[in-house]
Amino acid sequence: HTATANFKFTYAVELIPICKDDLVVMPRKTANSLGHISPLVLCARVGSAVHVIDFKTLQITEISGLTYWRHEDITPICSMRDLKKFYVVDVELVGPRFGKYALADVTVQRLSDVGKNDNVIIVRSHLGNILNFGDLVQGYDLQTANINSDTFDKLNPDDVPSVVLVKKGYAERRRKRKQRNWKLKSLNKDDGDLVPKKQEEERKVADFEAFLRDLEEDPELRQGVNLYHDSNFVARPDAGNAMVDDDDEEGDDAPEVPLEELLNDLAIGGDSDVDDEMAE
Known about the structure:
Blueprint: E1 23-25, H1 28-33, E2 40-46, E3 50-53, E4 60-63, H2 65-70, E5 75-78, E6 84-98, E7 101-110, E8 121-125, E9 136-141, H3 150-153, E10 163-169, H4 172-175, E11 182-183, E12 186-187, H5 198-217, H6 219-222, E13 228-229, E14 236-237, E15 243-244, E16 274-275
Antiparallel strand pairs: 1-2, 1-5, 2-3, 3-4, 6-7, 6-9, 7-8, 9-10, 11-13, 12-16, 14-15
């Protein structure tokens, strides 16, 4: 008898169903109680509280867990799966700057319309600091979106833009990297005896890839996550003998994690309590 026992615990946790970059709607009364912010806002960050930004004024406010559960009519109406691509035709700075945000009137065209017609849309956006002519930008097309929300239906139509720009986009050929020079670590997981369906597995892979891209694009998000050098990463020498990624393309500004932010991948005694593979 070793006097050792193994236990398994199960916790039921209810999470706020709002993620970064979600488009969130709330009644006017609730918005007024949060500093008279617009009832239609973007989720800028999720931490101990949900940080939302009014993309037309740069006003930012926090929604605490207590506030959310007290006003359960605060709901996301669009998420990352609803994002559409647009081509930036023009950017005109029109107002204040706040941190990494700058107010601008941005002229965009649906990527599906480029080369077919001259239909353009002028929208007020918080992304004036990072968008330039010729860029790709991702956003929510509210003219074609299927939104099922009584709160949204009650909004004044004059307050609802045709398009809400969310974040800068990058060429898919650049973003679909075969390998990154960094990796994450995770605790060992017990998935049980049930084998996940192929569709569920593909969804998990897509969600994790989206998380990795968010880490590359958002330095604030990386502050709370440990990124490690990937010893399996292989770079090739170019004509100048500089080591570069196989997928790098000249003139593309897709974000990358600076080397100085990466931690050395060390394992004591040749073993580790965490999985060396990236979480899936």
